[in-house]
Amino acid sequence: MVEINIPTDLLPRDGRFGCGPSKMRPAQIEAFLTSGVNLMGTSHRQAPIKNLVKEVQEGLMNLFHNPKGYEIVLGNGGSTAFWDVASFSLAQGQSQALVHGEFGSKFASSLSAPWLTKPEIIQGEPGSRKELVAREGIKTYVYPQNETSTGVITPVKRLSGVDADAIFMTDATSAAGGIDFDAKQTDVYYFAPQKNFASDGGLWLALMSPKAIERAEQIAASDRYIPEFLSLKIAIDNSRLNQTLNTPAVATLFFINEQIKWIESNGGLAWADKQTKAASDLLYAWADKTDYVSAFVSNPEHRSQVVVTIDFDDKVDAGFIDTTLRANGIVDINPYRKLGKNQLRIATFTAIDIADVEKLIESIEYVVARMS
User: Fold this and answer.
1) Whole-angstrom Cα distance, residue 368 to residue 95?
2) Statement: the pTM of the whole predicted model exceeds 0.85
């Protein structure tokens, strides 16, 4: 293979298309340098940080259409930590987990704790999706709204015919802030902020229904052993005081707050949904009309609008394309490492400009035309 230099006029203005950490807008960085730096090195139990937490909570509630009785709860750690929070503080009896990729599988594994009944796994192949099934005795239904490893989407929707005390948990890490949804269709909508919210790691956040909060309080009052760090009841109590148990990542809070305000100023979650759909549609339309590429997720109804995975024909080396693009400033579009596929995985999060997606396609075509 020869070294390929892509002409400047074909390159995106911003070459960050990673699935997390995601691109941050320059305006977020500028705002941090102007006012955010003054928050660094200060106590999270004093007014400046507590007010920031409150603004994030209120902003998210507004963005998520203010479902009655729901609360925004946050805690230390990311989505991986929340999987363990859920196993200690929310799950009871048997759970049912929809799995069609790496992250759904990891959440399902956390629900296999010895104090819980072994979960029922509804297993789909990567790139495809099956559906949850209402069953008597299932107390918790869990699924990824967007499977980040493959780019498969699942609607946020309750099942009919489930037990009256069953709750639904939606892993929304790579969907929250980029896909509109009806919050009343789930009980726990949890996420980390380093995707559509263009922030950094170190926190988990969850939109929780009264039913889910009641269950967390019931479990906390039982004889189940719950480490303090993984206690959802402690996180709920601290969140009502606009704080976290331990010192939070203050910069992460600042950046997510800036992104929330930006999304709201443009039209809220409905606008963000249109933005990500338009960006992803460009890539899917290109894949459908180009002979050497195809969408990894074959069913259009299952295709994510925030993570697009593209398969390449065997005669085209996706790894070489990835390496060449990185050398030209287009980064982090490599496929999920455990899939081992000849493909690229491209984020179309809310902050990613549609014009940059168009330029990304032009850059890929330029490289493919010059491969030998």
Assistant:
1) 46
2) yes
